[in-house]
Write a structure and sequence with these properties.
GO terms for molecular function: identical protein binding; malate dehydrogenase (decarboxylating) (NAD+) activity; metal ion binding; NAD binding. Keywords: Metal-binding, Mitochondrion, NAD, Oxidoreductase, Transit peptide. By secondary structure, the protein is α/β, with parallel strands linked by helices. It folds into three domains: 120 residues, no CATH class; 269 residues, Rossmann fold (3-Layer(aba) Sandwich); 196 residues, Rossmann fold, CATH 3.40.50. Strands 9-8-7-10-11-12-15 form a seven-stranded mixed beta sheet, with helices on both faces. Strands 2-4-3-5-6 form a five-stranded parallel beta sheet, with helices on both faces. Helix 5 packs across helix 6 and helix 22 runs antiparallel to helix 24. The longest helix has 20 residues. Bound molecules: nicotinamide-adenine-dinucleotide, (2S)-2-hydroxybutanedioic acid and magnesium ion. Magnesium ion binds next to helix 15.
């Protein structure tokens, strides 16, 4: 299972140290692009607009002469001007409340996105570590909460319960002929912020920005979608500005009929598009995944993407203790939150433990997990347990930790179990309080690991400061939203890893797309997780670094995408993409597949424009 890790790491290092153009910059001199517009219509189309960078020849050709100031600026000058404006905004808002600053930064980026996509994605790619917290978690959460007030112009598509029977024709209203990647939400569980109804559209937009930046999906071929089936959020229903349907959420068959119709419409127009389900409440996350995963090329990021990222982190925690990976099934793991993400993580971790060779295990009965939800420790005596959760309930037989009981509190569980890992996917900010973290100090691991994976930042179960202070300097920390590293004194650093599904979903989507997989199998997802897990070197792991820097996300995604393509080929699920068929994919070596995936990535460069009008 882990054989190719060293080879992969070597390949990754080669890729990272190359001074060649970034992964995906293959087409450095872009071919001409045909536009079906002229004049102002081009200036108002962010896909084609170059603002003041239109050369005179193009201004003549496209009917732009006189519509722009006479000076022609270069792309580099435009880039510098934007970055300077951004830096001035940072200076001018210093000392203002965090939410004001965050929204101001989001606005300036959003305005560029509205105006000039090439420049927008270039600044995003080059500055992904700085800008991801604005277009993605945590600021995207604030944007969703305030979406109706912030709304200026639409982005993506909106299908509502009122559109029943019309979706097959509506899908043709989308102006792009080809769509490769769709992210859809029903707004029912936006990060840890609950039901935000139509305002949840910010999440698919943010995720697709990451797709463009990390996976090099052409922004003309992405489509964010909101399925508005109502909201149960009373505050929004009473808000005069609320832009969604003012009715309670559809339930049962009525709900599924809307999602079915939407999926059929998408498939009819773009049969090869990959559909990512995002931020659906647990019952619909699982139901839709089971319903569609063998019929369409789709996955649920919160269940499956998160699982792979957490698994990579859990394996890193084993390595950090100086133990072999085969020791993973002996790790004691407390998981707080038994929702779509928590259960996704538990299922994948368990699957992975059961595949590990050479250890005594008891099949399905092998349970190294203690799972808590809002009612405390989950045991088999709990009434009305969802079957997906019941698999992880504690039985309390003779081999159990004594003195634990149904509903036991988190601090009780941590004190008695002394887990190697404490992992939070609860959506409850600060729940890993001082008492809990001090109890983690008594962990049976020499490197106790605390994963506070809930988003946005306000919902993180704890901060890195809390962990390094209360658990100790040998602790390992990861969070869903970004935090800064901590200085521990004596030149030592406490690393604040970011354990976010952004490390995997772009590669899963890209790999599925380029393989032309009929559907996304467990094997493809496992390959993605293994690839991420093997990305980090032993030296980094020893320091407490479990995940690579977000700055290398394009390189990571090329690796993950290639791993997914190879798994699809191995399972005979690949049908190929464009002019590269399954046989050709199958004949590529591991490094050729990485090169192929990297070459397929779109990179923002102004193309010469030719109008056909
Ligand atoms: N880091 C990542 O990549 C990532 C990925 C997916 C989800 N998340 C985050 O995980 C959180 C949960 O997402 P989800 O989809 O599983 O939500 P969910 O609503 O399906 O599940 C939440 C779970 O937390 C439990 N819970 C609530 N209050 C609790 C408490 N006081 N103590 C213990 N458990 C409690 C609930 O009972 C439920 O089991 C969200 O904040 C989300 O942003 C992070
Ligand atoms: O959106 C994120 O940052 C991660 C995850 O998908 C979540 O729902 O929290
Ligand atoms: Mg999500």
């Amino acid at each position: 299972m882990w054989r190719s890790a060293a080879r992969r790491s070597a390949q990754i290092r080669r890729l990272l140290s190359s001074s060649a153009p970034p992964a995906g910059a293959g087409a450095a001199v872009p071919g001409p692009c045909i536009v079906h517009k002229r004049g102002n219509d081009i200036l108002h189309d962010p896909w084609y607009n170059k603002d003041t960078a239109f050369p005179m020849t193009e201004r003549d050709r496209l009917g732009l002469r006189g519509l722009l100031p006479p000076r022609v600026m270069s792309f580099e000058q435009q880039y510098e001007r934007f970055i300077n404006s951004f830096r001035s905004l940072e200076n001018n808002t210093r000392g203002a409340p965090d939410s004001i600053v965050a929204l101001a930064k989001w606005r300036i980026l959003n305005r560029l996105h509205d105006r000039n996509e090439t420049l927008y994605y270039r600044v995003l790619i080059d500055n992904i570590k700085d800008f991801a917290p604005i277009i993605y978690t945590p600021t995207v959460g604030l944007v969703c909460e305030n979406y109706s007030g912030l709304f200026r112009r639409p982005r993506g598509m909106y299908f509502s319960a009122k559109d029943k029977g019309e979706m097959m024709s509506m899908i043709y209203n989308w102006p792009a002929e080809k769509v490769d990647m769709i992210v859809v939400t029903d707004g029912s569980r936006i990060l840890g912020l609950g039901d935000l109804g139509v305002q949840g559209i910010g999440i698919p937009i943010g995720k697709l920005d990451v797709y463009v930046a990390a996976a090099g999906i052409n922004p003309q071929k992405v489509l964010p979608i909101m399925l508005d089936v109502g909201t149960n959020n009373e505050k929004l229903l009473e808000d005069k500005l609320y832009l969604g349907l003012r009715q309670p959420r559809l339930e049962g068959e009525e709900y599924l009929a809307v999602v079915d119709e939407f999926m059929e419409a998408v498939h009819a127009r773009w049969p090869k598009a990959v559909v990512q389900f995002e931020d659906f409440q647990m019952k619909w996350a699982f139901e839709t995944l089971q319903r569609y995963r063998n019929r369409f090329c789709m996955f649920n990021d919160d269940v499956q993407g998160t699982a792979g990222v957490a698994l990579a982190g859990l394996l890193g925690a084993v390595r950090a203790q100086g133990r072999p990976l085969q020791d993973f099934p002996n790790q004691k793991i407390v998981v707080v939150g038994a929702g779509s993400a928590g259960i996704g993580v538990l299922s994948m971790a368990k699957q992975s433990m059961l595949r590990m060779p050479g250890i005594h295990r008891t099949g399905e009965g092998h349970n190294q997990f203690w799972v808590l939800d809002k009612d405390g420790l989950i045991t088999k005596t709990r009434k009305g347990l969802d079957p997906a959760v019941a698999r992880f309930a504690r039985g309390y037989g003779p081999d159990e930790v004594p003195d634990l009981h149904e509903g036991a509190s988190l601090v009780e569980v941590v004190k008695k179990v002394k887990p190697h890992v404490l992992l939070g996917l609860s959506g409850v900010g600060g729940i890993f309080n001082e008492e809990v973290l001090k109890a983690m100090k008594e962990s049976d691991s020499p490197r106790p690991a605390v994963f506070a994976m809930s988003n946005p930042t306000t919902k993180a179960e704890c901060t890195p400061d809390d962990v390094f202070k209360h658990v100790g300097e040998n602790a390992i920390f990861a969070s869903g939203s970004p935090f800064s590293n901590i200085s521990l004194g004596n030149g030592k650093t406490g690393y604040a890893n970011q354990a976010n599904n952004m490390y995997l979903f772009p590669g899963i989507g890209l790999g599925a797309l380029l393989s032309g997989a009929r559907h996304i199998s467990d094997g493809m997802l496992q390959a993605a997780a293994e690839c991420l897990a093997s990305y980090i070197t032993d030296d980094e792991i020893r320091k407490g670094i479990l995940f690579p820097s977000v700055s290398s996300i394009r390189h990571i995604t090329a690796q993950v995408g290639a791993a997914v393509v190879r798994a699809a080929v191995a399972e005979d699920l690949a049908e190929g993409c464009c002019d590269v068929g399954p046989r050709e994919l199958g004949s590529m070596s591991e490094s050729e597949t990485v090169d192929y995936v990297a070459r397929k990535m779109w990179y923002p460069i102004y193309s010469p424009l030719v109008s056909d009008k």
